[in-house]
Amino acid sequence: MDEAFRRGLRLGLPFSLVAFLLSLSFGVLAVQAGFSPLQAIVMSAVVHAGSAQVAAVAIIAGGGGVVPGIAAGGLMNARFLAMGIALAPSLPGGPLSRGLQGQTVVDPSWVLANRGDGTFDRWQLFGSTVPQYVGWVSGTVVGAFAGDVVGDTDRFGLDAVFPTFFLALLLVELRDPRTRRVALAGAVIALALVPFAPPGIPILVAGIAALVGLRR
C-alpha cells in the first residue's frame, strides 16, 4: 500500500502543474462570468473535473442558464461511467465504499493506475490523484482571487486555454473513424442550432446526439 501510494504521488506530480494552470484560468474566468470566488473554489473542490466545470461555466456565462450548464457538465463527465465500471472490480467493499473510492478518479489517475490486464492499483490511483487535486483547488483559489489583478485574461492568452483543452480532448478521440463521423455530425447539429436556439442548447443537443451515436 505505502509503496503504491508513494509511487502514485510521484507519477501524479507532473499532472498537478497542468491542473494548476488550467484551474487558475478557470478561477479567473468563472469569477468574470459572475461566480463568486467562494463558488468557484467550492465547485473545484467538489466537482474536480475540468471539462465539466468549463462547459458549465461557459454555458452559464453565455446566458444558457444553470440547468443547461449542469446538463452539459454531466455530459462531459459521462465517460466516467465506463471508467467506473472498469475500475469497480478492483475496489474492495460494498457499493457505497466503492462509490466513495471512485470519487478519486480523474483521467490521468485512471490511466496511471491501470495495470494493463483489466485490473487497477487502487493505492496508486489514490496517490496520483492527491497532487492533482491540490493543484486543481489551489489554482482555482489563485485564479478566483487574482481576477481583479489579472484583469483582461485575453492579454495572457488565457482565453485560449479552454478551447485548446477541449480541442486536445477531441483530438485524442478522433483517431477512430467512427468517432470522427460522430464528432462531425455533432458539430453540424450545433452549428445548425446556433442561430435559433438559446445559448447552451446547441452544445447540449449536440452532446446528447453524440452519445447516442457512439452507443449505436
Automatic annotation (TrEMBL):
<protein>
    <submittedName>
        <fullName>4-azaleucine resistance probable transporter AzlC</fullName>
    </submittedName>
</protein>
<dbReference type="GO" id="GO:0005886">
    <property type="term" value="C:plasma membrane"/>
</dbReference>
<keyword id="KW-0472">Membrane</keyword>
<feature type="transmembrane region" description="Helical">
    <location>
        <begin position="156"/>
        <end position="172"/>
    </location>
</feature>
<keyword id="KW-1003">Cell membrane</keyword>
<comment type="similarity">
    <text>Belongs to the AzlC family.</text>
</comment>
<feature type="transmembrane region" description="Helical">
    <location>
        <begin position="133"/>
        <end position="150"/>
    </location>
</feature>
<feature type="transmembrane region" description="Helical">
    <location>
        <begin position="184"/>
        <end position="214"/>
    </location>
</feature>
<keyword id="KW-0813">Transport</keyword>
<dbReference type="InterPro" id="IPR011606">
    <property type="entry name" value="Brnchd-chn_aa_trnsp_permease"/>
</dbReference>
<dbReference type="Pfam" id="PF03591">
    <property type="entry name" value="AzlC"/>
</dbReference>
<feature type="transmembrane region" description="Helical">
    <location>
        <begin position="54"/>
        <end position="75"/>
    </location>
</feature>
<keyword id="KW-0812">Transmembrane</keyword>
<keyword id="KW-1133">Transmembrane helix</keyword>
<dbReference type="GO" id="GO:1903785">
    <property type="term" value="P:L-valine transmembrane transport"/>
</dbReference>
